[in-house]
Amino acid sequence: MTPARQFAAEFATSRIALAGLALLSLLLLAAALAPWISPQNPYDLAGLELLDSRLPPGARSVAGAIHWLGTDDQGRDMLSAILYGLRTSVAVGVASTMLGLAIGVSLGLAAAWLGGWLDALLMRLADLQLSFPSILIALVLLAVLGQGLDKIIVALVAVQWAYYARTARAAALVERRKEYIDAAVALALSNTRIIFRHLLPNCLPPLLVLATVQVAAAITLEATLSFLGLGLPITQPSLGLLISNGFNYLLSGHYWISVFPGIALLLAVVSINLVADRLRDVLDPHERR
Amino acid sequence: MLSHIVRRVLQSFGVLAVMSLLVFAGVYAVGNPMDILVNPQSDQIEIARATAALGLDRPLLEQYFIFIKHAATGDLGRSFAFNVPAIGLILERMPATLELATAAMLIAVLLGIPLGLWAGLKPRSGAGKTIMASSILGFSLPTFWVGLMLILVFSVWLGWLPTSGRGPTVNLFGIPVSFLSLEGLRHLVLPAANLALFNLSLVIRLTRSGTREAIGQDYVRFARAKGLTETRIVGVHVLRNVLVPVVTVVGVEFGSVIAFAVVTESIFAWPGMGKLLIDSINVLDRPVIVGYLCIVVALFVAINLFVDLLYSWLDPRVRLGEAA
To answer: Is residue A268 part of a domain?
Structure first.
């Protein structure tokens, strides 16, 4: 059996992980296809009818369309808003994780390979940062940088890099003592080639698990910051902003405006965590039970 | 032990200095508070006068040294928005946050340890499995959304509890607290439960794994062989083994709870320092932002120090290892 098939077979022995993977795939597909499968374009103001505002789930609009998840205060179809919001949330979570992974892994590998003052400096910095909760660091950065898509990604990357740097460094320190690295060094391959072609692939499994968990964490953190009004601007509403908007109507009993985006967020986070848990069981021999 | 304490205290001051510099440089280097603070109709002369009055025309490094000099005497500058000392503004709101955080931790520990013991002693029972499944959910659920759901269910639908605010406070040694009156308690329950959720899950998991580890150990089997009652075995022998990691985590997490209170306080309009921080960020009230961060960093450092010392007192192995 090829390693990939063996991996897939092992992953599939857990039913709950498969269910998580199925749900995650569905959500990702819905997010990717949002502009084509949404009943309406929620941000085309011409398409909104104020008479349709705050309709309960399942109600018919003036024009006769059914709003399965109700409408918000501006008469926007909630299902469409959620699909677009999910798209934004997932994109921000994945993009910031990728960027954080690239930066963190490069720094971690450099620290492990070069050692010395660079290693000491980077790890002290990571220690200092990890001793504070990520939300606090993100709040400070956003207080400094202001609002915007690019700024929230910067904040999420800054929060994440230290985890990847530490994990990459720890894995690389173990791997670099092994014989295949000695062999590569003896062959006089360049440092870059050894690090990226030999060291990095063997450090990947724990990083992959961590990155999956971090996507969920990044999506949650972004939603929290947007909920506090410090994340994405109103023109690019993520799930967090939708929930925040619905909060204003929650007290008057219009629950659907914030409950349904919240459920979408919850499903995304839980499905990612289920997949990550199984990945850890399969990929990380230390955690194997 | 003494040298250990001294070293840890010195380390703590180092962290404090580095963080204050980073925070100050970050918060002061970007954005111009004048745009927000001065009436848009005011002319150049008025803006210049206000800038000078706030000390914002000096070089950044000079501003930092002035800030540090004043901070050492407990003066963190005047709030731009309220024109009162920032430290007073923050300290005034601190009891509310500390009360909320303490209540949340109490819920996490007082519920988490019994539930974790149960799940650890009877891992195959339905209750044990339910407890563990709920604790996984507790990790995954976004805290702020759970807060909204608590308001929706208990305040809007059932009408049992108030939606927001702190309710009437009673003075205890001059500090206003909510937990001494019934109405205050009713206001405290939902935000505290919301804030407790994550740590409740954490305590359950820690207690469960600690219990599972302990019941396999020789000393517990010996206690059983001696014919001790189950209550005594669990209450004394198992619990003691469980307490060390729980105390450590609870201590370290107390700082995080204060940081996360920012979210809970915003949802429940709880008048603590977290809500003050969000309001200050929105109007770029720098002295309050910097002051809040300095106080929270100082709290973190103090908590870590305290936990470290408590840990060595609780676990003789750490204490003896120090002496050797």
So the answer is: yes
